[in-house]
Amino acid sequence: MAIWQYRLTALPAAGIRRRCGHVxxxxxxxxxxxxxxxxxxxxxxxPPKPVIDDAYTTDWWEGLGVAVAPIAARIDQLIQRAAWSxxxxxxxxxxxxxxxxxxxxxxxxxxxxxxxxxxxRTDLRDINTAAAFLLPMLGICEQYDLLVLDTxxxxxxxNLAAVYPSIKESSAVRFLTNPQAFLEQVxxxxxxx
Length: 193
What we know:
This protein is an alpha+beta fold. It is about 40% helix and about 20% strand. It has a six-stranded antiparallel β-sheet with strand order 2-3-4-1-5-6. The two termini are about 20 Å apart.
């Protein structure tokens, strides 16, 4: 993930309600567990399944049968399919040379053609291209009753008013607005670890 990308994970509201009994404003993400997992990987070619219990490993889509094809058709209108896209992992990638480093990834349940996981990242370097990608992606999420989860675990409605505070506090915005202060903070955190 490029530092200028803002990542959201789309989660079905029905799956959240089924597992939690309501829609919380925050879901647990085991940041320390993920850090240990990635640091211990022998090879990135075929990583083992993580033994982590958090919002990223919970199967929110189980039993919902949300078809991938109609959502993919909408995404195809925004961004081109990536060359590495497959039947199990549908991928899209923007034109990096035009500062459109947006991307999207949908993991598909085998033989069912339904969604298993759904993530997208918005390139924030240019406000116009960011809006041209992010707003329609939020619209897709709204149409399919999906909520969006940021990297800190904040669960939000898929609209700009709800997502904007998270964007403002994101590492992407902190880097883009003051790269020196951002990098100094990262160095301080690494020395403290």
